[in-house]
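Recall the central idea of this unit: under ordinary conditions, the amino acid sequence of a chain determines the structure it adopts. In this exercise we apply that idea directly, starting from the sequence alone.
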Amino acid sequence: MDIQKTTDELLKILKAQDDIKDYIEENADEMIDMQLSEFLEQLLVKYNITKNQAIKRSGIDQIYGYQIFSGVKENPSRDKIIQLIFSMGLELQDAQRLLRVAKAGELYSRNKRDSIIIFALNKRLSLSQCDELLFEMNEKTITEP
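Accordingly, the structure predicted from this sequence is:
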C-alpha cells in the first residue's frame, strides 16, 4: 500500500467529481482495501520484528494477539491496535495507517488523550511510559482493563 495523495487531496478530487465510479477507478491505488492481518504482516517486515516480539511487548494476551495477526479477530479495540503500534515501534504515519486499516479511527490532535499518545509516539516512548503520561494527565491508560 503506497499512498501518494493526501486525504485532503483525495477529498478535493471527490468533491469535484461527477461520477463516483470514475473517482473509484481513477484512485483505486489510493484506497485502503486491505485486511488488517495483511497490513500487520507488511509492518512486521518493514520494522524487522516478529509476531511473537510484537505480541509480547504489547501486553496483549498471546492467544488474542495471534488471533489479531491471523485475521481471526477482525475488529480488535482501538487500544489493542495502539498497544501493537507501540510494541512494533511504528512511526506516526504507519500508526495512523494501521488505525485506518483497522477501522479504529486515527489519532486526533484535538483530542487530549490522542494528543498524549501522538506525543509519546513522536518521542519514541514505550507503551508503559505513554500509560504513565496518560495517568498523570488524568486520561484512560491504553492497557487499562
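Residues 36-46 form the longest helix (11 residues).
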